[in-house]
Write a structure and sequence with these properties.
285 residues, alpha/beta, Protocatechuate 4,5-dioxygenase, Chain B, 8-stranded mixed beta sheet, two-stranded antiparallel sheet, 10 helices, 37% helix, globular
Amino acid sequence: MSKLIGCALMPHPPIMIPEVGKSELSKIQATVDATEKVAKTIKEFNPQTIIIITPHGPVFEDAACISVHPRLRGNLSAFGVPEVSLGFETDGQLVRHILKQSQRLGVNLIELTDDAAKNYRMSLALDHGAIVPLYYLNKAGFKGQIVHLSMGMLPYEEMYTFGKAVQAAVNIVDKRVVVIASGDLSHRLTPDAPAGYSPRGKEFDEIVIDALKNLNVKTLLNIDRELIEEAGECGLRPIFFLMGTLGGIEAVSEVLSYEGPFGVGYAVGLFLVKDKLKGGEGNEK
């Protein structure tokens, strides 16, 4: 039986943080409300560890990355609010198992040690792709450990396999674990979008949302590569990872919200393992 509680897809615009967004927060109220609901639902299962994968951490062309520092901190000083600061202990046991299972499945995974961070001139701090979802989880009462992963520019199939490696690692440890895929969809939805406008951005988002509702990885694999390029997304690889984490597990899928008022698609989804639900066999709440 899977030890995994479930997964969630969360967007990461810093404007979602009240101290950053201020009056603009109301323009993405549906996203905020859905994110708060997901965070509260996750907290009800009392997870001991949250694994989060982000597209804005140390990203390598040929490898994913895992932070191994025993305590990770980060803040939003880059967005003018250094007082928004979070810190979590790293789940070292789970990190070791993820490394072993990734090696077993042939996934290229780099350990971000202090020395590696210096050599690659990369930060050990939590990036905003991790901080924004963790802000809401912390607000809901999560005080456990984390594992911080950064996607690599790997083939989509390998990101899916990376998710399978994490699933295997979670099944080894005797802990309640939730996986968060942090990612936004098309960045080209409106004429004032940050990456410019493309009429195909909405088309891409609709396909991804449909795939998430049905947890259908084949739909994602069949997306035309030109469409992906045209969409200007940052969340597709984390979503492939999410799909891999749930691969072969019966899960209940719910997309709680989708909107793009600033030209970037924000989707919030919750994917709970069926046997962990109330009344279901094996509920570990």
